[in-house]
Amino acid sequence: MTAEPDPPTRYDPAYPSEEVVHERTEDSYAGRVRAVRVVNSVIRFVTALFAVVLAIHIVLVLAEANPDNGFAEFISGFAGAVSLGFDGLFNPDSEKAAVLFNYGAAAIVWLLIGTALVYLVRKFAMPGPNRTVSYRRTVR
C-alpha cells in the first residue's frame, strides 16, 4: 500500500498557475462601531460613577458617618456637585429621609440619562443594515 499525496491546496506554491491576490480593505463600518462602543462605554462609566457616588453618600448619611472625615467630606462634596439640583426637592421631617429621597432620585435620574444617551448614540451613530463596502484591489 502506497499513500497517495494530499491534494494541492488552493494557494500551494508548487502550483504556480494560481495567482495570489493581496488586498487591503478599509471598512469604515468597523471603525465607526468601535468609536460608538467607546463613546457608549464612557457614557455608561460616568453616569454609573455619579450614581454610585450618590448611593455612597446616602449610605454614609444613613449610617451616621463622621462628616468631618476626609472621605465623607469628599463624597459629600462630589454628591452635592452631581445632585442635579435634587438636594432640596423633598423636605420630609427627617434629614436622613431627605437625603435618601433627594440623592436617591438624582442617582436614578443619572442612570436614566446614561441609558437614554447610550440608546441615542447607538441609534443615530451606528450605520444602517444596508451598507456598501467600497475598496480598491491592487494586484502585485
TrEMBL record:
Transmembrane segments: 42-63, 100-121
Keywords: Membrane, Transmembrane, Transmembrane helix
Domain of life: Bacteria
Transmembrane helix recorded as keyword: yes
Name of the protein this chain belongs to: YggT family protein
Organism this protein belongs to: Actinokineospora fastidiosa
